[in-house]
Specification:
The chain has 6 helices and no strands.
C-alpha cells in the first residue's frame, strides 16, 4: 500500500455501502430482513450484515487451502507464516510461482497439493498481512490462537 493512501469508498465493506441507502444507521441495524418487529417471535436483527455463510459455497476450495495450511504447519511451524520478514513480498512471489507452475502441472511436486490451492493460500496470507499492516490495533482470532499455542509450548503442556 502506498504510504498514507486512503481506502477508496468502493472498497468499503458491503454492509457499510448498503448502510448509505438507509437514512438512519441506528434504524438500519434494527431491521429484520423479513420485516418483523424486533419483539416478534422469530425476529433476527441482521439485515445488511455480512453473509459469512457464503463461505460454505466454496467449502471444497477452503478445504484445499486448509490442506496447504496443514502442510506448512508440519514443514515449518503452525502460524509461523505470520512472522516471516517481508511477508507480503515473499508470499506474492510464492503465489506467482505457483500460478506459473499451474500452467505446467496441476499438483505441486513437493507437497502433492494443487498449485491452485497454494495460490489461494498465498493470496489469503498476503491479504491478511496487508490488512494487519493497515489496522495493527485490531485483534485477530489467528493472533490469539498463536499466543495460546506459544504459551502451551513455553509451559511444556
Amino acid at each position: 500500500m502506498v504510504e498514507n493512501e486512503k481506502r477508496p469508498e468502493r472498497d468499503a465493506p458491503v454492509w457499510e455501502r448498503l448502510r448509505e441507502s438507509v437514512p438512519d444507521p441506528v434504524i438500519y441495524y434494527q431491521l429484520d430482513p423479513d420485516g418483523l418487529d424486533a419483539h416478534d417471535p422469530g425476529a433476527k436483527l441482521d439485515a445488511g450484515k455480512p453473509l459469512a455463510g457464503c463461505l460454505l459455497d466454496v467449502s471444497r476450495a477452503l478445504e484445499a487451502v486448509v490442506d496447504v495450511f496443514t502442510y506448512g504447519a508440519g514443514k515449518y511451524s503452525r502460524g509461523g507464516w505470520q512472522r516471516v520478514d517481508r511477508g507480503v513480498e515473499r508470499y506474492t512471489d510464492a503465489m506467482l510461482r505457483h500460478l506459473l507452475q499451474e500452467g505446467r502441472s496441476v499438483y505441486d511436486a513437493e507437497s502433492g497439493l494443487r498449485h491452485a490451492a497454494q495460490v489461494a493460500w498465498n493470496a489469503l496470507t498476503r491479504l491478511e498481512l496487508m490488512l494487519r499492516e493497515e489496522d495493527p490495533a485490531r485483534e485477530t482470532l489467528s493472533a490469539e490462537c498463536l499466543n495460546l499455542h506459544d504459551a502451551k509450548h513455553a509451559s511444556g503442556t
